[in-house]
Amino acid sequence: MEIIGCDLHARQQTLAMLDTATGEVVKTTLQHEGSNVREFYSRLMRPVRVGIEATGSMQWFVNLMEELGIECLVGHPAEIRAAEPRKQKHDRRDADLLLSLLVEGRFPAIWLPTKELLDLRALLRHRHQWVRLRVKIQNALQAIALANGLRRGSSLWTPAGQQAIASLPLSPHAAYRRNELQAMYAKFETEIETLNQRVEQQAGERCAARLLMTHPGVGPITALATEVFLGDPSRFASSKELASYVGLIPGEHSSGKRQRLGGLTKQGNPLLRFLWSEAGIHAVRRDPELKHFYRRKLIQKGLGKARAAVARKLGIRMWIMLRDRIEYPEFCRRGQMQQRSGDACAGMPERRYGAKVTG
Question: How many CB atoms lie under 10 A from the CB of residue 148?
């Protein structure tokens, strides 16, 4: 068997290869030009196992390994770096480290989404980028309106508001900027509406997304994003692991009897955290339990921490609904049964909220 530690970059890759039959170790560097990479891996005797570190530009390589029938493991970057205590870092040492982790069975492989999920993620990210660009255009138009005494607030985006800002007497360059921004805003509105329809169509065709949309405050965008970014819900052993994966847990630097908690780690998908936070604000208006929970946290912790707590609680609820394949009414029924029996309440499966743990 050929075991290969591959330090992958955009233009080249450094390899450390071990032949388990002979014990020979070969080190080389491949340039990503033409068909060099395909020809090199095609000539290798099967079976072959390749380990790489997760990077943003790795998908083409993962697809190539799948096409050639080569086992490719993708490792967690932070855990790989933690396995090397030395301060020296360069491509050859990185490849040697990946090879040693593979040989010793300590390679921290991560879960990889399917091609279908990757395509849906691309749709959601594309829509989110266009929405952010539209917000920038709206802020620029609002600034122009306020600077010229036009105070319409959110009504500036109605047809009457757009007509009002278009009729403002401006100097030539300012008028040109205003006209271009209005044209871009109209274009973005049309494109975002098209993307919204595509997201709604995809969410309506997927059973898991339809389950999540039964929860108050959860729309097709949040439901589809939760399904495609979480993937298989059974890979999370508990709600704490889910919150850690998304980055909705506080950072901690404790020692001895002193506990120091910081802000959210945010070591997860930023789009999913944003959507859960936005959906949480809508959910507290429609779900009595979430509303009570939000108001209590608002008094205890303040606005920011209360919103983060609601986002986490809503995300855990959706994870439970995905894991158990249940709709919102069934979720509430199970929560009420658990509360009556003294077990964990809905959304907090570890233990009942407010119950004291005695040792």
Answer: 14
User: Which residues, including other chains, have CB under 8 Å from residue 318's CB and lie 6 or more apart?
Assistant: 212, 215, 218, 223, 226
pTM for the structure as a whole: 0.86
Closest alpha carbon to 181 in 138, 146, 127: 138
- The two structure tokens encoding residue 15: 């390899």
Whether residue 43 contacts residue 121, with contact meaning beta carbons closer than 8 Å, is answered with no
**Which parts of the chain sit beneath pLDDT 50?**
346-359
Distances (CA, A) of 326 to 212, 319, 334: 9, 10, 10
Six-digit token string for 311: 């986002």
C-alpha–C-alpha distance, residues 59 and 190, integer Å: 31
Residue 134: what are its φ and ψ, rounded to 5°? -65, -40
Contact 1, 21 (CB under 8 A): yes
Question: Which pLDDT tens digit goes with each residue over 176-227?
Answer: 999 999 999 999 999 999 999 999 999 999 999 999 999 999 999 999 999 9
